[in-house]
């Protein structure tokens, strides 16, 4: 679990039943009312970017993701022709 104070670009978290990574965030302290954090979140599966506002101090569940280079060890067959 992480709070809004722990937000940084690239942080991966669970939000709305999906995995999102923080593209951009901004902590705002207005003259009136409580502080909040504006974020741009990118869905890992679809690539769609959404904007969301979190109130200061909200806890979110973080996720650990590993990105590794892969090499496929098979050929793709289309119409009986090896491509």
* Main sheet makeup: 6 strands, antiparallel
Secondary-structure arrangement, i.e. CATH architecture: Roll
* CATH C-level category: Mainly Beta
Rounded to the nearest angstrom, the radius of gyration is 19 Å
Helix share bin: under 10%
Overview of this structure, please?
With 83 residues, this protein is an all-beta fold. It has a single domain (2-66), classed as SH3 type barrels (Roll), CATH 2.30.30.30. 0% of the residues lie in helices and 48% in strands. The protein has no helices and eight strands. The protein has strands spanning 2-3, 12-15, 18-28, 36-43, 49-55, 59-62, 77-78, 81-82. It has a six-stranded antiparallel β-sheet with strand order 1-6-2-3-4-5, with no helix packed on it. The chain has a two-stranded antiparallel ribbon with strand order 7-8. It is elongated and about 70 Å long. The protein starts with a strand and ends with a strand. The model has no long low-confidence stretch (mean pLDDT 89).
